Amino acid sequence: MDAAEEISTQDLKSGLKKIRLRRWFLWILIMAYLPMMMLAMRAQQSGRAVVTAFIVWVLLLIVAVALMALVRCPQCGNCYHMNGYLFRPVRKCFSCGLPLNADKKLP
Questions:
Q1: How would residue 62 be classed by pLDDT, with cut points 50, 70 and 90?
Q2: Does residue 73 contact residue 93 with C-beta atoms inside 8 Å?
Q3: How far apart are CA 8 and CA 58, in angstroms?
Q4: Does the pLDDT at position 7 exceed 80?
Q5: What pairs with residue 92 in β-bridges?
Q6: Relative to the CA of 14, which of 49, 74, 81, 87 has its CA 20 to 30 Å away?
Q7: Residue 70 and residue 50: Cα distance in Å, rounded?
Q8: Rounded to whole angstroms, what are the CA distances from 44 to 36, 53, 56?
Q9: Residue 65: what are its φ and ψ, rounded to 5°?
Q10: Could you state, in order of their start, the residue ranges of all structural domains in the chain?
Q11: Which of 26, 28, 27, 47 is nearest to 37 (CA)?
């Protein structure tokens, strides 16, 4: 997207909502680890259940991080959380500096 092109308010809101949903998915997945492991330890074959739960959790974690790393900024079109090859989940776009809550300040 060129700097001369204007982005509509609706596109900005939907793009930032998508970014926030992916961030929430990652945080919920991280917080679910301990309860999931505790449930797996109470299973009949706890060793097998723990290994299975851990593998599923790691695969979901890889998917969540990939989804977050590849989400595009609605303003500039670059990856929101990527700076070159580095993934850093900060609250501003690395390319244009668009804050994650910019749509909340709009009328």
A1: very high
A2: yes
A3: 37
A4: no
A5: 99
A6: 87
A7: 30
A8: 15, 14, 18
A9: -70, -40
A10: 9-105
A11: 47
Task: Report how far apart, in Å, the C-alpha atoms of 72 and of each of 11, 30, 40, 47, 105 are.
Answer: 12, 22, 36, 40, 20
The token pair that represents 84 in the structure block: 């070159």
Say what the pTM is. Answer: 0.81
Q: What is the pLDDT of residue 1?
A: 47
Q: Which of 46, 22, 26 has the alpha carbon at shortest distance from 36?
A: 46
Q: Under DSSP, is residue 83 helix (H, G, I), strand (E, B) or coil? A: strand
> What span, in angstroms and rounded, lies between the C-alpha atoms of 68 and 6?
24
Asked whether the beta carbons of 74 and 11 are under 8 A apart, the reply is yes
Residue 43's contacts (CB-CB under 8 Å, 6 or more residues apart) are 49
